[in-house]
Write a structure and sequence with these properties.
Helices cover about 45% and strands about 20% of the residues. By secondary structure, the protein is of the alpha+beta class. The strands form two sheets. A six-stranded antiparallel sheet has the order 1-2-9-4-7-10. A hairpin with a 2-residue loop joins β5 and β6. The protein is elongated, with a radius of gyration of 24 Å.
Length: about 290
């Protein structure tokens, strides 16, 4: 059976020169995250890649049609349309298209100081593969980066693609935020946050949130903390303080008026909470804004 690394009909591929990558690595602006290779392989029959010593970069592969597989740490995972996977730098791996249903893939290699942290994020959430909703905006943005680099490796083009790469990765790591879907009944955290945003002018209880989302208090509390890292009530208070910080800057209201408008009956409790969350008092926050404006 033939094995083909590249050369597929209709493919797009661009490999940045080592000299360009070396410049990006030491650039204060680009060194955190930058592309080294990028490409698109449609209906890539007999596609196969094996790297016994791994690769110096991290590799993201997104399958939009067909099927494929990859092997890492001796374990093989199947990949279907609508899934993506990430391969770490420096580790032996192989991957390829299904014989019966060869995949269509968008792929890119990247590296930089942030790359290892992104690998950790992927491992903690999406490993060994994640299914994400299709987004034409993701494909269009991928094409934009490829087209920009095809026009040459000017400093402007390289800086643009480096800064934009984080946005493209966000579309994979946080697809629901990227695509901004309509709220669904089962997404209890988003429903809870929507309720909080509509009730910034008063205190709320876990019972209210549970009734609104249709889940038990215990389940709501567990899922909310799991997704946000905060308890529900703490998150609501942080939203209220966020609104207070905006009012301090954008309105002529004094601290007492802002406190009452957000449902804090005790102005001094409001000030203590503001200081705890932001690290400075309301008056200092406002003063520092206008000092450093």
């Amino acid at each position: 059976m033939p094995r083909i690394k590249d050369g597929f009909s209709g493919q797009k591929m661009l490999i940045l020169p080592d000299e360009v990558n070396a410049q990006a690595a030491v650039s204060p602006l680009m060194g955190n995250l930058y592309l080294t290779n990028i490409g698109y392989f449609p209906k890539a029959g007999f596609h196969y890649v094996e790297r016994k010593k791994g690769n110096n970069q991290y590799i993201l592969i997104y399958c939009t049609e067909g099927e494929g597989w990859y092997k890492l740490h001796g374990e093989q995972a199947s990949i279907k349309a609508g899934q993506y996977f990430l391969l770490p730098a420096g580790q032996q791996h192989s991957y390829g298209a299904s014989v019966d249903k060869p995949w269509t893939i968008y792929w890119f290699h990247f590296t930089g100081k942030m790359a290892v942290e992104l690998w950790g994020l992927y491992q903690s959430r999406d490993f060994p593969a994640a299914t994400i909703p299709f987004s034409q905006a993701r494909i269009d943005f991928f094409d934009k980066l490829l087209h920009t680099l095809e026009k040459g490796y000017s400093r402007e083009h390289l800086q643009f693609t480096s800064l934009a790469l984080g946005y493209l990765l966000n579309s994979f790591f946080f697809p629901n935020i990227f695509t901004e879907p309509e709220l669904k009944d089962h997404d209890l955290t988003d429903l809870a946050i929507e309720y909080m945003q509509n009730n910034l002018y008063r205190s709320i209880t876990l019972r209210e949130l549970a009734d609104h989302t249709g889940y038990s208090i215990a389940h709501l509390a567990m899922e909310f903390r799991k997704k946000t890292g905060y308890s529900a009530i703490d998150y609501h208070n942080r939203l209220r303080i966020q609104r207070a910080s905006q009012q301090l800057i954008l309105t002529g209201m004094n601290i007492k008026q802002i406190s009452f408008s957000l449902g804090f009956k005790d102005q001094y409790y409001f000030s203590r909470l503001f200081s705890k969350i932001t690290g400075e008092s309301p008056s200092s926050y406002k003063k520092n804004y206008y000092t450093h404006k």
